[in-house]
Design goal:
186 residues, alpha+beta, Alpha-Beta Plaits, 2 domains, three-stranded mixed sheet, two-stranded antiparallel sheet, 6 helices, 5 strands, elongated
Length: 186
């Protein structure tokens, strides 16, 4: 969120809070209606107060219009939430999270000791890629060696295919599963 958007949100929240408080005080009879009307009359009749109220009102109207009709997020910013936007002299390329997940799954499935894989990719605002892999492995897997090799291979494959640096490859071994033997009919 940009500074101006945050400022608008805080300002309008304060204004709504003050107006709600005044209405509550008037409703409960804790604030004299005549006093509130005198304040409004002063703003209308006093030239300096009237000019200040007019300028403040115009600024608030412009801020409201900006907040309602002009979104601070650009299309490229929204697209970067879906993946990573790469640019070069020839144009742009949006690499989706699904693409990174598919590449990661392909690397994991090339390992014999890993069976089922689930992958999640996080991309932050600075286009740092973090990959989270959840695995089911076979009992004969050496988990430490498997995870080290998997982390290295995933990083190298993503770098080679997409020219992206992966900051983290986090692996979670969910369970150890038994290899299913094929049914042989005699």
């Amino acid at each position: 969120m940009k500074f101006l958007d945050k400022f608008n949100l805080v300002l309008f929240s304060i204004i709504i809070l003050i107006l709600s408080l005044i209405i509550c005080l008037l409703s409960f009879g804790w604030l004299n209606l005549g006093l509130a009307l005198e304040g409004v009359a002063f703003l209308v009749t006093n030239t300096v107060a009237n000019n200040i109220a007019l300028v403040v009102s115009i600024i608030l109207i412009l801020l409201a219009i900006k907040s309602i009709f002009f979104n601070s997020f650009s299309k490229e910013k929204m697209q970067s939430k879906e993946g990573i936007l790469l640019e070069n002299d020839n144009g742009k390329l949006l690499v989706s999270r699904d693409t990174i997940e598919s590449l990661t799954n392909a690397v994991v499935k090339s390992f014999d000791s890993a069976e089922t894989v689930m992958t999640k990719v996080d991309v932050d605002d600075e286009s740092h890629v973090k990959i989270y892999i959840t695995l089911f492995v076979y009992p004969d897997a050496v988990i430490k060696d498997l995870s080290n090799k998997l982390q290295t291979d995933v990083k190298e494959t993503i770098k080679k295919s997409l020219d992206l640096d992966v900051t983290e490859v986090n692996i979670r071994i969910k369970n150890v599963t038994i290899k299913k033997e094929p049914n042989i009919k005699e």
